[in-house]
Structure formats: structure tokens, C-alpha cells
Amino acid sequence: MGTIIHGANGGFKGKAGSVIGSSWKSINYIKGLYKKKSKPASEAQLMQQEKFKTLMRFLLPINFFLKIGFGLKNTEKLTPINAAFQFNGNKAITGVYPNYALDYGNISIADGGLYGGGTVAVSYDSGELTYSWSTGGSDVFETFGDDLVYVLAYHPEKDEFISSTKPSTRETGVVSFMVPDHLTTGSVHTWLFLSNRSKTKVSKSVYLGELQLI
């Protein structure tokens, strides 16, 4: 039996006849009872499902970054990871069904209007990844020395992400961290983005390219 929410004119929660009432992010929904499907999925549906799995497999482990990078996108209706999926879905997947792959150069892990890192670079030496960026703040562009800098690397062969243990700052200009021994062969794809200290502004992420670790 359903429970009425906010009086007779409000939404309801629970089952009422052939419909179910629920709410998410203060939005009330009514949907029909689930009916078991006997009709097999169409090729278009299978293609969409495979695209979803391909991209979400990449996004799920980096939800910490997405909460910052996409946490300001349509927050009333979308979670950050769903906003990231929506933003990347049409540009980050390549290949032909069922052999989809990710175009890492077109993947964004953040999108916003904060001024980015200026001249950015990444290098690898003696088992260590080093990211660098411009340090200058600007009152005109509302950038400051304590803006936070996030770096990320992805090893596709091992399907693992690595990063610094905590964000650096714009005024620091550089951050380095060791690559675990089991990841020191092959290559990594690399990204960088910034937020202000309160995480109420974020920059677009920058793809820094693929870096050989051998």
C-alpha cells in the first residue's frame, strides 16, 4: 500500500495498484510495475548496453575525481558519475559493436569555467611520474595560489588508476609520485584539472597524453 507524501496533492511512496511511487533528489516519480520481458533486446539496445558498460567500467573507480570534476553539473537531476557519463558518452567511445574501446584523448574527468593549469606537462623517470603546471595566480581570472590541482594516470593493460596521495596547489607548480612496481611496464594515459579551495569552481580537465613507462 502506498503512503501519501505532503498531503493529498503530493506524491506517494510505495505500491498502489499497478504503479509504484518513489522520489529521488526531492523529485516525485510514478512508474508502472516491472513486467518480465519475453522479447529479446534489439541490436540497438545491445549496442547501447555495451557502450554503457565500456564507459562506466572506466568511470566507476574514479568517482572521487568525478564528484569534484562534475559535482556542479545539474545536481538536482544527475549524480556526478551520471553527469560524467552523459558528457563523455558521445565522444569517448570508438570502434564497432561489439568491439568498443575508449578514446582516452577525448575523455574528460572535469568540466567547468575555472582557469586551468596554463602550461602543463608530465614526465616519467626512475619509476616516478611528475606533473607540472603554471604557478601564477590572477585576480582578473580569479585564480589563486591555493587552488587545488588533481592529477590522474590510467594503466589500460592492468586496468588500474594511480594518483598523488592528495591534491597539490597551483602555487606549488609540480607534484611527483612513484608508480607501483607492477605498473612500471607498458604505458599510462594522464590527466590534470583544478578546483578552487572550496570546490565551488572547477576547470576543464586536460589530457596530457600517453606516456611510455619502459
Largest sheet: 5 strands, antiparallel
Distance between the termini: 63 Å
Work out the number of β strands: 14
Order of helices and strands: EEEEHHHEEEEEEEEEE
Which CATH first-tier class of the largest domain would you pick? Mainly Beta
Proportion of residues in helical segments? 10-25%
Subunit arrangement of the protein? single chain
Could you walk me through the main structural features you see in this protein, from its secondary elements to its overall organization?
- The protein is α+β, with helices and mostly antiparallel strands.
- The protein folds into three domains: 3-32, no CATH class; 39-111, no CATH class; 113-214, Immunoglobulins (Immunoglobulin-like), CATH 2.60.40.10.
- It has helices spanning 43-59, 63-69, 80-88; strands at 3-4, 12-16, 19-24, 27-32, 93-96, 99-102, 121-125, 128-132, 148-155, 160-162, 168-169, 174-178, 187-195, 206-212.
- The strands form four sheets. Strands 9, 10, 11, 13 and 14 form a five-stranded antiparallel beta sheet that branches. The chain has a four-stranded antiparallel beta sheet with strand order 1-2-3-4, with no helix packed on it. A three-stranded antiparallel beta sheet has the order 7-8-12, with no helix packed on it.
- Strand 7 (121-125) and strand 8 form a beta hairpin.
- The model has no long low-confidence stretch (mean pLDDT 89).
- InterPro entries: DUF6266 (IPR046233).
